[in-house]
Every structure is written in structure tokens, then in C-alpha cells.
Amino acid sequence: MSxxxxxxxxLMNHQLADLQRNLQELQAHATKTAEQYEVIKKxxxxxxxxxxxxxxxxxxxTEKKEAxxxxxxxxxxxxxxxxxxxxxxxxxxxxxxxxxxxxEDI
Length: 106
Prior knowledge:
Hsk3, coiled coil, Hsk3-like
């Protein structure tokens, strides 16, 4: 064989070896990427589940706080109403007492 042809064949063999090595590396990267995709997909589902659960918990807490706040407002209103009724009753009792002391007829 001619030296040029032998040199070309050696060069092509070397390039073929590089190509095979690069293809194997590409295959390894593609496999790793596919594995990472599956893991990231699971992570995304877990995060979505966590966020939905947290939202439900925070919503429940907010509803309970609002119910407690409404109960406190109602209790305060009832207490104010009760105190106002006591004041009216007390005022009426004082009026009767003053009338009796002044000698007025009721």
C-alpha cells in the first residue's frame, strides 16, 4: 500500500475511534438526562402536592380565625347589649327610687 493511503486509513481509524467515543459519551449523557427528567418530574409533583396541602391548611386556619373573630365580635355585642339593658333597668330603678323619695306617685 502506498504511504498516503496507509496514512489516510490510520487517520480515518482514529476519527472513527473518536466518533465512537463521542457517541458513547452522548449515549451516557442522554441516559443521565432521562434519569434526571424522571427525578425532576417526581420533584415537581411533590412540590405541587406540598403547595396544595399548605394552601388547604392555611385556608382552614384562616377560616377558623375568622370564625373565632366573628364569635368574639358577637360576644362583645351581646355583652354591650346586656350592659345597656342593665343600665336601663338601673336607671328605671333610680327613677322609681327618686320618685318615692320626692313623694311623687309612680
